[in-house]
Amino acid sequence: MGNQLIGLAAGGKAEKLPFGNRGQNQPVLNHQTGECYITPQNHGFVINCETLEPGWKTLFTNANDGSNEGIAHETRPYFTAQFHPEAQCGPTDTSFMFDTFLDVCRAKSTEGFQFPRRDPPKPRPKVKKVLLLGSGGTSIGQAGEFDYSGGQAIKALKEEGLEVVLMNPNIASVQTNMDEKSASKADHVFFLPVTPDFVEEIIKREKPDGIVVSMGGQTALNCAVQMYLAGTFKKYGVEVLGTPISVVIDTEDRQLFSDKLNEINEKIAESYAVDGIEEAVEAAKVIGYPLMIRSAFALGGLGSGICNDEAHLREMAKKALSVSPQILVEKSMKGWKEVEYEVVRDAYDNCITVCNMENFDPLGIHTGDSIVMAPSQTLSNEEYHMLRDTAIKVSRT
Q1: Fewer Cβ neighbours under 10 Å: the N or C end of the chain?
Q2: Is residue 119 part of a domain?
């Protein structure tokens, strides 16, 4: 039953909100599991939990204004929601509540209930000094967005009271700004190449507790993978903050990434990971032309492109393998609509879709030559949330 009806029956009082909670992006905190959901809402009144009779407790709270979004009985299987877990318009983050309700009904239990809980987060690492691998030179897969993200990362780390060491060979970048008033100014800046040898020397000199590698583009990622495999981080007791290196490897290695998507039953284009030209030619015989090749460990499409015949494939594969140890030969999606989702996931497994973007041109036009619109303009609501669910599912794999 509705939250306000149960709240009134439980002795509570309904009060009018100064501003109603409406729309598809209302964040709600679950007091039972500590998780946060994005919910659709359309209401202007709220139950004052301080007026509830003994035996009732707050279950959900709106993270924006702190208002109540659901209550539960302390000993019996009664719970409510002020938002819409059934919303076909999406998002469907809380649809699991119906499974919980049915499980309680089948069990015919008179005791409480338990929502599914994801794996508990790892303890927050105790670090005081952090090394951040910067954006490096400007090139494909290594553009200004990494300078910006690195600058924001420095600002966030400083707000947490951490000492920040920055490595970036590009003196013209924003994140290397030495202005004393700059909020994103690092405590120590080293204008050195982001390579395993130089990074190890800085680690020996500065003795950081942690390292951030996901804010520096492809150069930083490749460097971190090499150091991880060589055992350098473990040798010096440096903890990788943010995205684990094992996850970087799974996403950068095209075959591993393909295998991960198959594990969660997500549809992907037919593809084969190869490390030689002749293997690529054999894979092409199975897929057929035109086809797409993609370089592993290369953000921004470096070494990737569409091949129309075997001669073209041999030429492009040779170039791609000169900058990457592996290429992916896959079915061409040329002409398909291209949509991208920005998903942020924290240690508590909360996921937020910051935005989604749609390319004005179809697949086949390089991103650098295409107009990108945010948010998407031609997706139906059903398509938008279907893709959002997929993006979150992939990020949690």
Answers
A1: N
A2: no
